[in-house]
Prior knowledge:
Blueprint: E1 5-15, H1 19-29, E2 33-44, E3 54-56, H2 58-67, E4 77-80, H3 88-98, E5 104-107, E6 112-113, E7 116-117, H4 123-133, E8 138-139, H5 143-149, H6 161-173, E9 178-184, E10 190-197, E11 202-209, H7 218-231, H8 236-256, H9 272-285
Parallel strand pairs: 1-2, 1-4, 4-5, 5-8, 8-9
Antiparallel strand pairs: 2-3, 6-7, 9-10, 10-11
Helix pairs in contact: 1-7, 2-3, 7-8, 8-9
This protein binds 3-hydroxy-5-(hydroxymethyl)-2-methylisonicotinaldehyde.
Amino acid sequence: MDQKRCLTIQDISCMGRCSLTVALPVISAAGIETVIIPTAVLSNHTAGFKSWTFRDMTEDILPIVDKWNGYRNHFDAIYTGYLAASQVPVVSEVFDRLKDENTLILVDPAMADSGKMYPGFDLAFARRMAELVSKADITVPNLTEAAFMLGEEYRGHDYDRKYIAETARRLADLGPRYAVLSGISFEEGKVGVFTYDKKEAKENYFCTENIPGYFHGTGDIFASGLVSGLLNGMDITRAARLAHNLVHYAIQESVAANDSEVFYGVRFEPALGKFIEEINSFKKNNR
Ligand code: PXL
């Protein structure tokens, strides 16, 4: 069988597990060839560290893609994460150049959390990001990003199932077939994932035990796990469960190690063994 290939487009934050330092190991561990376009190189991510260097790679993005002309440039998935404002139209052009009828586009509009935009982003950026989302098959915003892209107020944890279902539907109305909302809790002590499939008009929600706390970089682990599941043949709800489990195991590892410096990101590395086992067991049962 041909090996699946995923292109992921996001920054390298040299220290602090997120973006490419998460996507590359996670998707590779899932048995998928992972081609990258680094959009910027930062000394570290911008959430929790006091300052950072930022080397913008925007000018290199399209020339990199041009060099692949005539080579193996079919991608089973293109997955984008954290992008600078000037990069959104460039990445949109990458979609136009590289997408074929079998390419799944996943846009993680990584730009905000807990009701606030990340440093350097504003609400105008959220509108541009919504345009990129309109070209995607799947989007995986957190509730802050969802609210900002939909032009709504962020309402914190004050939501019910009706609001989440409505949000997912409105996200899908932007363009994607699937809207996936992780970290959703309808019940004290539980957290889970809501998925909406526009084509089938199907909603799904599942949850597991919640481990209290704020853990940095989990959105990137979730998106990487999701694309890994989909490219290994899982449907959206099964892939969401795989991704959720990976995040859960990574948080468990961090908590067990008493790692309180969460801005370094969670310990996904010791969780990769279980992640691979879960994929292998799915493949064995679905041969
Ligand atoms: O995890 C998302 C992310 C990616 N890249 C950079 C970031 C963040 C979140 O803060 O700062 C540079």
